[in-house]
Write a structure and sequence with these properties.
Layout (H helix, E strand, L loop, with lengths): L24 H11 L4 E4 L6 H14 L3 E6 L10 H15 L5 H9 L6 H16 L4 E6 L12 H12 L10 E7 L3 H4 L12 E2 L11 H4 L9 H12 L3 H17 L10 H14 L2 H4 L5 H9 L2 H17 L2 E2 L4 H9 L2 E4 L2 E4 L2 H6 L2 H11 L3 H9 L11 H11 L6 H44 L1 H4 L3 H31 L12 H15 L3 H15 L7 H16 L5 E4 L6 E4 L6 E4 L4 E4 L5 E4 L7 E6 L5 E6 L4 E5 L4 E6 L5 E6 L5 E6 L2 E6 L5 E5 L6 E6 L5 E6 L4 E5 L5 E5 L6 E6 L5 E6 L3 E6 L5 E6 L4 E6 L5 E6 L3 E6 L4 E6 L5 E6 L5 E6 L3 E6 L2 H14 L16
Parallel strand pairs: 1-4, 1-5, 2-3, 3-4
Antiparallel strand pairs: 6-8, 7-8, 9-36, 10-11, 11-12, 12-13, 14-15, 15-16, 16-17, 18-19, 19-20, 20-21, 22-23, 23-24, 24-25, 26-27, 27-28, 28-29, 30-31, 31-32, 32-33, 34-35, 35-36
Length: about 900
């Protein structure tokens, strides 16, 4: 063939003997596996050469005497087709390809078996017709297999049928001659979710990667009569396309056409690199949407944006990749969809952009524009920016603001997005404060009217006030109380919404929540005696409700807790030095506290038991085993020591060359992790053997934690990043990024679903453990120093540098602050049952906060009896403890 007749093919399947066909590793692998009767599948992005590979493989197998058939699933139909029609279409294509039955014979055969299911009929056709009439080896290629995803009915039985053909080989040798190959744009889990019936776990996945340098020699021939150095030009083309078959063929063809039309514009020897960059920008990148014929780049774009709800997540993931240049590869839905679009690919365990052409077109500005178009608040944001950020009428409020917060979760947005959302939130906060001032005045007026009502009640007999008149007054006051309570609930619901969560109060819990919130309002007004009565009433009424959710129970307990500790001091353990940690011993019967100089054991009644002897300071960390029986003590310059919670020193010590910054036991205490400088080490507890050493952080590791199932270890560092590694092989699963300052503490929720991270940037971030997705950002007034999950995983306690403890729901909604320390919080810890929360501080105190509702009721009632409180403030609260 002369060079002038040479033609590159852009799009579509290449003919069997096309001179531009590039043999890849996948060609050899697919051919050998199918020839050995192994089930194969190629599930990849579009325009990667699957159809051309299919044509070439069919030709090679046919030449070897293998009977082949190709079934294009997209020809059968999808949306409105029934299972009967779909399986019938596959069966008919099968008989037609192998000339088994004519059309009339097939219809008769199919209709005679209407009493059995369509998939059963197809299986019988394979066994009793195909395998009996065709004696050679048989390969059935099923192309466009992703078309099954458009069928309304489930087709998982079809894939189970393929698996059954392989299972039958042990019973019927004829099945040894039959094999299948599936090709399409999908993942195995997309096609069938039942792992016990899937054929993909017994098959062989063929990796159809782009063209490699040692494979592309067939493409040189078309350039030899066009450019001075065809090898270098092709090398530059491959650099820009990353070996993507469609783009590679297209660029080769464009260079060839340029040589025919304008040879004077071709590259000269030595300037191929610069020339190719200009050529690609002119012919591919600039105005790419109008130049994209046949469509390729638009196909990539449309796959990313076809589902608006999903597009924002895909773009957020891709945006992170562009910022970091590469991210750890995983099986998350977002990464899978990005790979199937062809936009990204695997390289050395990471995900990168597939080629420089994609990177130039689908660049950060393109992502930003797409995200802008997808924003639910795009129009409002544009108008606000157009007013130089002065038009407050364009700011979001109410549900619109909440919807925007929900949409923004987990995304890397621009500064102007965050400015707009912050301005909207501040505007709504201003309105809240205004309403709150009005409501406070209403509360004061209501309680004055309550006192008046009581006076009327006491004087009823003397003045003979009619029952009807009194009842009318009570009902009127009750209506007004309900209205004000509703206003309070609305205001506090908004306040919860400030913390990035849509928190709705179920109608069945309105009364209890209202009473608890009213109690908080009274505490804020320094009316603590009234708050105590209101909280006790809420606690008593709680017992009358069946099925009250845990959030409402906890809110009632918190209201009572705050009312009590507004009148009396909580339990405090005093230390002569800053307290750095507190842990509960077994069954929460005792406590262990630590300062830089001592580790102290305390009895259940909070009296001193003993100090652990011979611990050389300064002490930096302590950790307690999950069964709360072993204490690990980390000092700055000495080996890690181990003690029992009864005060006995264990013979095990772990050496270290640098100060240990954190320690964590595995769930069964068979291993322990330590952090030293930029390194994480895992040791076996029984003999102190070093099992693994991990590096990778760019700054000091400040926190390490095992996941509850013991399969993952998380580490947080001053480099603002959190690493999640698989313990079995040390593989890096996720890198969590987003904090603006060092990450000082991390904790898994006990149910293993969440990971919380605390940072000096004043935020706590809640991540989904399974895929590392950011779920919520909890904003604090100062640096966050510590955090810990309640044993039921529903509540998170966080400590801050300004001495506050904040309690949050797991969905990110704020519950309440606990105040009692004068300096920075150093540690927070829950008792094993979750009824108590302990905190330590640089002020030398450790506080144990009682959150057990029954204990709080007893304590509140005792306090109510001891104090001179006017129980008759309201008829409904004559004696809430009776």
């Amino acid at each position: 063939m002369t060079h002038t007749a040479y033609q590159y093919q852009v799009g579509g399947s290449l003919p069997e003997f096309s001179p531009t066909y590039v043999m890849r590793k996948a060609d050899h692998e697919l051919y050998e596996k199918l020839k050995s009767s192994e089930f194969c599948y190629i599930l990849n992005s579009r325009q990667m050469g699957k159809s051309s590979l299919l044509v070439r493989t069919v030709h090679r197998l046919t030449a070897d005497g293998v009977a082949c058939a190709t079934i294009d699933i997209s020809d059968i139909g999808s949306k409105q087709i029934s299972l009967e029609q779909w399986y019938g279409g596959v069966a008919y294509k099968l008989t037609s390809n192998f000339n088994l039955l004519d059309a009339l014979e097939f219809m008769t055969w199919w209709q005679d078996r209407e009493s059995i299911s369509p998939v059963h009929r197809l299986g019988e056709l394979i066994e009793t017709v195909l395998l009996r009439q065709v004696s050679q080896r048989i390969v059935i290629f099923i192309d466009e297999i992703d078309s099954v995803l458009s069928v309304n009915e489930s087709l998982e039985d079809f894939f189970a049928l393929i698996r059954s053909c392989y299972n039958k080989r042990s019973q019927n040798p004829n099945y040894d001659r039959l094999t299948f190959a599936l090709l399409g744009v999908a993942t195995p889990s997309d096609l069938i979710s039942d792992r016990t019936r899937t054929p993909f776990n017994i098959g062989h996945g063929i990796d159809l990667s782009g063209f490699q340098h040692d494979e592309i020699q067939p493409l040189v021939a078309g350039l030899t009569d066009t450019v001075a150095n065809p090898q270098e030009v092709l090398h530059q083309i491959l650099h820009w396309t990353g070996g993507q078959p469609f783009l590679t063929q297209k660029l080769c063809q464009l260079v060839r056409e340029t040589g025919k039309i304008s040879p004077e514009f071709l590259p000269q020897l030595g300037n191929e690199t610069e020339w190719m960059e200009r050529f690609i920008k002119t012919e591919i990148i600039h105005n790419w949407e109008s130049r994209d014929e046949p469509a390729h780049l638009r196909t990539v774009r449309d796959r990313l944006l076809r589902n608006p709800q999903r597009a924002s997540r895909l773009l957020g993931c891709y945006q992170q990749l562009l910022q970091l240049e590469a991210i750890p590869a995983d099986d998350s839905p977002e990464q899978t969809e990005l790979r199937l679009s062809g936009l990204v690919r695997f390289k050395d365990g990471k995900l990168i952009v597939s080629n420089p052409i994609y990177a130039a077109i689908f660049n950060p500005n393109w992502v930003e524009k797409c995200l802008f178009d997808l924003r639910p608040y795009a129009e409002a944001l544009e108008a606000w920016l157009g007013s130089d950020c002065q038009d407050t009428s364009r700011l979001l409020r109410g549900k619109a603001l909440q919807d925007a917060r929900d949409w923004a979760k987990g995304k890397n947005l621009s500064d102007r997005d965050y400015q707009f959302l912050a301005a909207s939130q501040e505007s709504e906060l201003t309105e809240f404060r205004k309403n709150a001032e009005q409501t406070q005045a209403q509360i004061q007026q209501l309680y004055r009217e309550k006192e008046l009502l009581e006076e009327l009640t006491q004087e009823q007999n003397r003045r003979k006030i009619s029952e009807a008149k009194l009842r009318q007054y009570q009902e009127n006051l009750a209506r007004r109380m309900t209205g004000t309570g509703g206003a309070l609930i609305a205001i506090f619901a908004f306040l919860i919404g400030v913390f990035w969560v849509n928190k709705s109060i179920d109608e069945t819990h309105t009364k209890l929540n209202g009473m608890a919130l009213l109690s908080q309002a009274l505490i804020a007004e320094n009316q603590r005696e009234l708050a105590l009565i209101e909280s006790l009433e809420a606690a008593q009424q709680l017992k009358a409700f069946i099925g009250v959710n845990s959030a409402t129970q906890f809110r009632v307990a918190l209201g009572l807790h705050q009312a009590i500790y507004g009148l009396v001091e909580p339990d405090r353990l005093l230390h002569p030095h800053p307290a750095i940690a507190l842990e509960f011993t077994p069954n929460s019967q005792g406590l262990v506290t630590a300062t830089p100089h001592t580790v102290t054991l305390w009895n259940g009644d909070r009296t001193l038991a003993r100090n652990l002897p011979d611990i050389p300071g300064p002490i930096h960390r302590i950790a307690i085993s999950p069964n709360r029986q072993i204490i690990a003590v980390a000092t700055r310059h000495h080996p890690l020591q181990f003690w029992t919670t009864t005060g006995e020193k264990l013979p095990l010590t772990l050496p270290h060359s640098s100060p240990i910054t954190d320690v964590s036991f595995s769930p069964k205490a068979e291993a322990i992790a330590t952090a030293e400088e930029k390194t994480v080490k895992i040791w076996r507890v029984k003999d102190g053997k070093l099992l693994q050493t991990w590096r990778g952080h760019q700054d000091q590791v400040l926190s390490v934690r095992f996941s509850p199932n013991g399969k993952t270890l998380a580490s947080a560092s001053g480099d603002r990043r959190i690493f999640l590694r698989r313990i079995r092989d040390g593989k890096l699963i996720h890198i969590l990024e987003g904090h603006g300052d060092r990450v000082v503490a991390i904790r898994f929720s006990p149910d293993g679903q969440l990971l919380a991270s605390a940072s000096d940037d004043g935020t706590v971030r809640l991540w989904r453990e399974s895929d590392g997705k950011l779920l919520s950002i909890l904003h604090h007034s100062s640096s966050v120093t510590s955090l810990n999950f309640h044993p039921d995983s529903q509540t998170l306690a966080t400590g801050t540098a300004d001495g506050k403890i904040n309690l949050w729901n797991r969905d990110g909604s704020f519950l309440t602050p606990l105040r009692g320390h004068q300096q920075a919080i150093t540690h927070v810890s829950w008792s094993s049952e979750g009824g108590e929360l302990a905190s330590t501080s640089d002020d030398g105190t450790a506080i144990v906060w009682n959150l057990e509702l029954d204990d709080l009721v007893r304590q509140g009632c005792q306090l109510l009896g001891d104090r001179s409180i006017p129980h008759s403030i309201t008829p409904t609260l004559l004696n809430p403890c009776s």
